[in-house]
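Bench log. Compound arrived from synthesis this morning; before running ITC I wanted a structural hypothesis for how 6-O-phosphono-beta-D-glucopyranose sits in the protein. Inputs:
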Amino acid sequence: MTADNPLLEGLEVERRAPPCVLVVFGASGDLSSRKLGPALEALADNRQLPLAFSVVGVARTEMSDDDFRRRMLQVVKKPSAAWERLVAGFRYVTGDYTCPETFEQLRRVLDEVDEERGTAGNRVYYLATVPEVFAGVASSLGEHGLNQPKREGAFVRLVVEKPFGRDLQSSHQLDETLHESFREDQLYRIDHYLGKETVQNVLALRFANSIFEPIWNRRYIDHVQITVAESLGVGHRGGFYERAGALRDIVQNHVLQVLGLTLMEPPATVDAKGIRDEKVKALRAIDILRPEEVATEVVRAQYEAGWAEGEMVRGYREEEGVAPDSRTETYVAMKVRVDNWRWAGVPFYVRTGKCLPKRVTEVAMQFHGVPHLPFASGAAQGLEPNALVLRIQPDEGITLRFGAKVPGQAFEVRSVSMDFSYGAAFLEETPEAYERLLLDAMVGDPTLFIRADEVEQAWVVVEPLLNAWAADEAPLARYPAGTWGPREADRLLESDGRRWRSP
Ligand code: BG6
């Protein structure tokens, strides 16, 4: 596999993209320079892109090929030689997505690239634009025949960024439009959380070990807490966020994906069908809230001014692009029930928010207490129930909390932690989520992408919340920036005799 690239000689690489062109719509945007560019640079450095590879950027911003190349070099502080070589072959098409000429020009450029770089007619289109134009771009690709392989054996794929619609109906419509030009197996819907190594490790932990799976159920687990906390506010994305809110931005996708992996049954095989079939089955087992339950089982809130990371930060309503009377939630806490044999009676408490005390994502499985504590009264005061915490980010690893005797003459028991840390256990570097996912899309492995039925079911789960909030039928709480959310979220657990962990 090293024949076409002298740089690869003598080097064994794990996985490598086939010859292809990555066409990035929205190439002048934020995602392109913040995530896609650096991910491609890392792939180039790791020798995972062939010489027969190119990027064609498409956007409305006027740019020449050279401007685009300069921009792509600037995505990293110090571009490597491998990256400079690749970037020299990148192309750019300036154009409006509604103009047929844009797609005619794109076709010409793609033909030239195939000729010059030997990219064999293989295409991966990437929609990194605002979501409003997803459907239009996909249809135009279809109308211009760019959805079809140019020659036998070539592949054409379309990568779609989230959000996949704004609700069940619009996501359905989007899918219908996408399916007019692309088959489901050509569609790669990205949820970058699935590209995170530690999210994938949920599968390894559960299905590569014999000690965890037997206790991964209602008999041993009292409840589960999933936290996706961010310390930053909405920054300059106020305008976008006003239309999204935490439910659409994080819960419908990232939280439900992590939840799905935690809930699912062991798949027969760890491949696209095996994983996605089980995940969608798990999502279907989630109890859908009745409208009147939204106010009692879910808390939505918005941050007010407060101290975060040592700085005074302004409240959400004072952010740029945000309405002074905005009702958009920046925090959601929710109790999820799952109706199946494994999980009946085990509540899953999930929470996410902006401007919380720290950036941390974790899944904490909290076990039942022992049936009887055979110690003198007071001996186990420092003992908490056992917990297994999957630390997804930033301090990637796994913690097991259990009781141990405190050294000394008295018999006293206290909770201690046994820690596994990714950084300490492995020398290998962890690839960024986008690196993994871009390569998967080029290689044609859809395992870590979301299938249409999963997207749809995730909307079904959040739909009652969207409806209740649109009708303003549930209160909107407030929390000072830099705190763990509103009191109402604490009460959600207190009413079940539980409390949030402090991550
Ligand atoms: C994105 C959201 O999908 O995920 C952002 O749109 C959020 O609002 C981001 O900040 C969080 O991703 P990560 O990888 O930093 O946890």
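What the model suggests: Residues 230, 249 surround 6-O-phosphono-beta-D-glucopyranose (CB under 6 Å). The first helix runs from residue 30 to 45.
ITC booked for Thursday regardless.
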